[in-house]
Amino acid sequence: LYQRIDPNRTAQSLHMDAIKDPIKAILLNIKSEEFATITNTLETESNGIELIHHYNESYIDVTAQGIDKHTTIQYILGAEVDYIAFGNDHNDIHMLNNATHGYFVSNANVEYQSFLKNPNIEVINNTNEAICNVLD
Questions:
Q1: In whole angstroms, what is the distance from residue 27 CA to residue 132 CA?
Q2: Cβ neighbours of residue 74 under 8 Å, at least 6 residues apart?
Q3: Within 10 A of 115 (CB to CB), how many other CB atoms are there?
Q4: pLDDT tens across 83-126, in order?
Q5: Span of the secretion signal (predicted)?
Q6: How far apart are CA 61 and CA 92, in angstroms?
Q7: Residues 1-27: tens digit of each pLDDT
Q8: Which run of H or of E encompasses 129?
Q9: Whole-angstrom Cα distance, residue 47 to residue 76?
Q10: d(C-alpha 134, C-alpha 103), whole Å
Q11: What share of the chain is helix, strand, coil (3-state, %, to 5)?
Q12: Residue 2: its pLDDT value, please?
């Protein structure tokens, strides 16, 4: 996760009061015994946010409600667009569920059995060969 945060080094350190319309925050290194308490507090005492739990990696994505990969696709390409999507994490669920066809690239850190309920989502191995076969 750390190598994916701000790879271009454009982030700034701001005081909380200076952030007027945040769209995302990541809570890192959450102790396992505190995970449920933090999650419950955020869910019950915050309005207008969505949480993506990463239990196995000890962090929580906090995003503004309605801001995710699927809504971004709709914003850029239009609300009624067909698309094929690849994803490998919790934050890809909404995008994959709404894709014409979605491919969940298996990930040891993500429980993917729920994807099998959607006939438009196929679980594929995390290999170059599996991805190339889909693209072929």
A1: 35
A2: 81
A3: 21
A4: 999 998 888 989 999 999 999 998 766 676 776 788 999 999 99
A5: none
A6: 12
A7: 666 778 888 888 778 788 787 788 888
A8: helix 128-135
A9: 26
A10: 9
A11: 40, 20, 40
A12: 63
Q: Tell me which DSSP letter residue 7 carries.
A: T
What is the token pair recorded at 57?
């990696």
User: Each residue of 14-42: b (16+ CB within 10 Å) or e?
Assistant: eeeeeeeeeeeeebeebeeeebeeebeee
Give a three-class secondary structure readout of 32-77: HHHHHHHHHHHHHHCCCEEEEEEHHHCEEEEEECCCCHHHHHHHHH
Poorest-confidence range of 53-62, 71-80, 116-125?
53-62
Q: Three-state SS for 119?
A: coil
At residue 88, what are phi and psi to the nearest 5 degrees? -145, 15
Prediction pTM value? 0.73
Which amino acid would we find at residue 27? L
Amino acid identity at 17: D
